[in-house]
Amino acid sequence: MDIDALAGGGGGDRLTRLSDGVLGHILSFLPAPEAARSATLSRRWRHIFAAVHTLSFNESDRRPNLQDDDDDDVRSVWSLDCYDHPPTRPPRSIPAPPFATGVLAALLGRHRGAARARAPLRAIRVRFDIFIEAASATAVDAVVSYAVLDAGGDLRHVDLRFGGGPIICNREYSLRQHGPASPPCTNDYAVPTSLFSCAALHTLRLGPCKLNLPSTVTLPLLDTLHLVRVTDTGTTNIQRLVSACPRLADLSLKACLDLTALSVLGTRLRSLTLKCCHDLTSVAVYSSQLETFKYRGAVPPPSFLTMHNGAHHISWCALDFCGDEASDPAQLVGLAAFLQLFTSTKYLRLKSARLGCSIGHGIFSSLHGFPVLSHIEITGMVPDGDTAVVTTIRRILEWTPSLEIMSLFFLPELEEIEENN
Amino acid sequence: MAAPESGDGNNGAARMVTLISSDNTRFEVEAAAASLSQTLQLTILDGGGGGGDGIPLPNVDSATLSKVLEYCIKHAPAAANGGAPNATAVDRAELERFDNEFVNIDQSVLYSLIMAAHNLEIEGLQSLVAKKVADMIKGKSPMEIRRTLGFPDPTPEEQAEMNAHMLEYGWAYE
């Protein structure tokens, strides 16, 4: 234990007296190239990079002015050109080195130092804004394969994102007609299959990419699985992957267009997100612990979601219906059946073309309501002279005796947006 | 906020334990909060720290310990919930706000916390303070990092050595 270090002294000295493991932990929160660069700080720091447990590569750093998503972002690494100058130059003024150069140099950097400092990797994170497969696939393969080997069966967290920008598809909230669902951009890259045999894996975030699974998939400890725009080469691969994770607690599938049916056997599932998986027609959930449900897509058919052990734990629910406001009887029946699943929710977020006004329809008058709902948030458009919204709001107020907060967000009408463009 | 106890057979009111800092200040805290420390967890499970005994922590002074316990008390309910993937957005935002505020401190306090978190093996706190130092380093040139972290200015030899090293690491600066 670092008893001496508590005695004080200059800050830098105190920091430097910490063990390699603690310093490695600190560097694990930096992008890998920047962490590797700490070797130049002083003799003490020369081999610390070998003690990091997480490698992060962030291709989007090289274009710092492009949009950021809302996740924890890792700041600029590449734009530093000399020892004593902060990165004050305007971004983009120098060409960035190929992604692969940084990766290979960082991997080598881990083996440069003394062997005693080496700590096995626990996590890798790779983030691209734009993934140009030919140029970067080999480097990503290298990172993944290296990490699987280096971790020695103890790789816990893997986060590989091959595209930035809006995740969801561009189906619109339309008052007039369905736009053709334009295919979201996909990616033919498939990550090394060795990843799917990492028995210690807890978190896996992947996409957009192809899913290529080995014949046996075993992820006994995986609790978080997020797939974004993952295309399914075997059509049942996503299902196989989900089925290989008995401890799954958090499952998120966004724009996985090949998916038509999903069954989540794991009984620990607490959070389920299904966004823009437009061909998905049936989902079966066996967990009785599901607490959070998020959906975006067309109004589902009546038997879309089956909760085999009840839905009474769902307390947080977000439903986002794209396309026209539901109006034909089949859709309305589906919507009523869907809403009926979430009567135990405390928080409901509803988004639809016309501010949920289909709820004003007579078919919903038999719905039992939401006895414990305390927060509701509704987003949509309200065309001039539309009175259906009044009926809707009145019905919602009748349904929700415990309501504390109601928020309404009015979207501009699509027509106006088009004219402005 | 009394987290349900597990494993030690007690029921009813939350069990309390006493921790004694290096300068002999006694802190009474719920066992569930103190158990965030891997180091203390076993002792507490064995029934230590109760009554008049107290667990001595010769490596942690009272100022640091009270800060550490502030963290443990705040995070104990979520930890009891199994990492709380089900925590509401509000709960999470509140913890995040607390964390940000918590590390908004003097560097010397931060370093004491790093060492205490490390000695007591409090995983969440270890990451929180490490991330804070990483944020202080992020985007800075090596010389700026040295100044930020309070390293003494390099001697000419050290400077030469660092410059030589710079050449080797040129790829990271391109």
From TrEMBL, chain A:
Top-rank taxon: Eukaryota
F-box domain sequence ranges: 15-49
Residue ranges occupied by any F-box/LRR-repeat protein 15/At3g58940/PEG3-like LRR domain in the UniProt entry: 184-292
Membrane-traversing stretches: none
Record-linked PANTHER family: F-BOX/RNI SUPERFAMILY PROTEIN-RELATED, SUPERFAMILY PROTEIN, PUTATIVE-RELATED
Name of the molecule in the record: F-box domain-containing protein
Record organism: Eleusine coracana subsp. coracana
Lineage: Eukaryota, Viridiplantae, Streptophyta, Embryophyta, Tracheophyta
UniProtKB/TrEMBL annotation, chain B:
InterPro entries: SKP1 (IPR016897), SKP1-like (IPR001232), SKP1-like_dim_sf (IPR036296), SKP1/BTB/POZ_sf (IPR011333), Skp1_comp_dimer (IPR016072), Skp1_comp_POZ (IPR016073)
Zinc-finger as UniProt keyword: no
Any one biological process term the GO annotation gives: ubiquitin-dependent protein catabolic process
A Pfam family annotated for this UniProt entry: Skp1_POZ
Keyword hit for Acetylation: no
Pathway linked to the protein: Protein modification; protein ubiquitination
Domain (SKP1 component POZ): residue spans on this chain: 16-75
UniProt entry keywords in alphabetical sequence: Ubl conjugation pathway
Domain SKP1 component dimerisation residue range list: 124-163
Taxonomic superkingdom: Eukaryota
Function: Involved in ubiquitination and subsequent proteasomal degradation of target proteins. Together with CUL1, RBX1 and a F-box protein, it forms a SCF E3 ubiquitin ligase complex. The functional specificity of this complex depends on the type of F-box protein. In the SCF complex, it serves as an adapter that links the F-box protein to CUL1.
Subunit structure comment from the entry: Part of a SCF (SKP1-cullin-F-box) protein ligase complex.
Family named by the database record: Belongs to the SKP1 family.
The protein, known as: SKP1-like protein
Species, as recorded: Eleusine coracana subsp. coracana
Gene assigned in the entry: ga14711
